Amino acid sequence: MLPVTVGDGTGDEVTITSVDRIIPVDGDLAEVVFALGLGDRVVATDMSATYPPEADALPEIGYQRALATEPILAQSPSVVLATDTARPTEVLDQLSSHVPVVVVEAPDELDGPAQKIRAVAEALGVPGRGEEQARATEAAIAEAVASVPASPPPLEVAALYLRGDRVQQLFGPGSGIHVLLEAAGVVDVGEVLGVDEIEPISTEALVREGPDVLLVTTTGLESVGGVDGLLAMPAFSRSPAAAERRVLAYEDQYLYGFGPRTGELLAELVHDLYTPN
Q1: Tens digit of pLDDT for each residue in 157-191?
Q2: Angle at which helices 176-183 and 262-274 cross, to 10°
Q3: What is the pTM of this model?
Q4: Residue 142 — φ and ψ, nearest 5°?
Q5: Residues 67-83: pLDDT tens digits?
Q6: Which domains does the chain have, with CATH numbers?
Q7: Residues 6+ apart with CB under 8 A from 143
Q8: 12 vs 159: CA distance, rounded Å
């Protein structure tokens, strides 16, 4: 029911009177809006929105970490949704003088997806749909966690951000990827090497650690020449992961999103980790 006034992730109170023209400036928020049945009200997204396909086909307003006011206002939104990682915050402040801007907290915890869904649903005036979707997401995550073997083998997994030969970073504690690895019962190489959230890492450190499995996105893997290109890198060429060709690749938003499909992703990750080809 509209209008609705919500307290957002910044502590501000925001009143939303219309959801006819929604702009989520984040791929996972776009996915949430579509999951709530309001995808036909979304008029634009940021470039990270690749799912569902209908969101990927919409006009883009830039990238969530490098927003600009003009492309967003040009779409005449009735409400803008952003996470607390959207930058620069000055753009959100400028937008809020023209249109309601709701900043949604996006905690990197297993209960984060459900929190996000409930917050978006409340802001868009469909709390009932949000509760239903949030509970389904919570149940799927719990089922995935329950599928982890009782005594899993001690697998060391290196979760990598790749963009060609020159951009190679390692995820660690403080990231959503770390939460997924922890839930899956494996050792996060980023934690072993003292990484904070995501950092560049030396070839020597990765050689020394010798991960059993490499976790990447599909676009990242493509950028280094596929599995062969990745395993040929000096950091991994002599690792157990290379010996067994254990590279797990998932679509970017699926892996990074922490949205309605988190339970599905975690179940797939657990299966792929403990059921090698």
Answers
A1: 999 999 987 778 999 999 999 999 999 999 999 99
A2: 50
A3: 0.95
A4: -60, -40
A5: 999 999 999 999 999 99
A6: 4-144 (3.40.50.1980), 156-274 (3.40.50.1980)
A7: 263, 267
A8: 35
